[in-house]
Amino acid sequence: MSLKRISLDGLILVPSSGVMLVGGLCKFVSPEFVSWLAVVGLLFPFALFVFVIGLVLRVSRGYWKGMIWPLVIVGCAYGDIGRTVGGLGGDAEVEGETELSVTSFNVRRMDEYNWIDGDETRNELFEWMEGNSPDVLCLQEFPSNMEPRLRQLLPRYSVITISQTSGPAFVSNRKVINGGEWSPNSKARGLYADILVDDDTVRVVNVHLQSVGLARDDYDAVRDGTDAEDRKRLLGRLSAAYKLRADQAQKLNDFIATSPYKTILAGDFNDTPISYALNCIENMNDAFTTSGSGLGATYVGDLQGLRIDYLLYSDSISCSEFTTHNIKLSDHRPIEGKFNF
């Protein structure tokens, strides 16, 4: 086929479908073995967006015969599309009269280093927490030295933080009967708390998996364009982070499997829905895919448009509502789910 006969929609559909299919494989291959595949998986939401544009162009020019293979691609990737676009994972089955609201929010150290507006941002964050006041609030990157102010703000809530300068924090208006830190290695990466919900006991796990740890010059390179040295450095950091997250996710799955209670898992996974880390978590449902809508992007930093924060729940729980709050007081948006028992 000559280049003159290649249509614009074909130029869009062929590479985007290739990225979607190859990226989908990253769920099954550990980055410890093939790290570059995880990077392709990172591109899945963007490839899906471009693919849809190609489909629209093909339909608009009435090339119905050429719709066959793109529809086959949709069928092959439908599971991954359902993980990326909210509400495609099946209708939420609301069971039981007891409701528990859970919010997860990476607060980026409460703007401790003045990334946004410092004290003003910090005050707005505390005001938002007080006004939102869910039954359970799971924070990531919360400075432990701000725990007294949080207790003062929410006097009827139990507050648990980890024994580090910054990390996950657990806040709840339900009675906590047990809890502790989750440490996949020498550093605590999460908290768990067993809470009473009427006559039932629920374990809530709050985690923050390995971040990429990009430096300012890395973000500058992404925005302004990369050279060979930049690409090598960026891929090296991405690969190292993917490998660490893979190990942490495997250990997190083992930890959840030992829970004697139905479980809700909240946190910042630093990874997209089409990733090995998310696929490691077995027998848990994603609240966004069942009750959310759109793409649900939670990261609002330099690489925007990614959903990397999650609320997962056991089969014995149902989710009736999911919200991604559109506020920009951190480099993450808070997410909230309402769960029924």
Task: Provide a descriptive summary of the structure in words.
The mean pLDDT is 90. The radius of gyration is 21 Å and the shape is globular. The protein has helices spanning 8-24, 35-42, 44-60, 68-76, 78-84, 119-132, 147-153, 216-224, 228-257, 276-280, 287-291, and strands at residues 99-106, 136-143, 158-161, 166-172, 176-182, 190-197, 200-208, 262-268, 284-286, 309-314, 318-324, 335-340. Helix 6 links the parallel strand 1 and strand 2. Helix 1 runs antiparallel to helix 3 and helix 2 (35-42) packs across helix 9. It is built from 11 helices and 12 strands. It folds into 2 domains: 3-84; 99-340, Endonuclease/exonuclease/phosphatase (Deoxyribonuclease I, Chain A). By secondary structure, the protein is α+β, with helices and mostly antiparallel strands.
- Strand arrangement, major sheet: 3-4-2-1-12-11
In the CATH hierarchy, the architecture of the largest domain is 4-Layer Sandwich
Distance between the termini: 59 Å
- State which percent range the strand residues make up: 15-25%
- Going by CATH, the homologous superfamily of the largest domain would be Endonuclease/exonuclease/phosphatase
Form type: globular
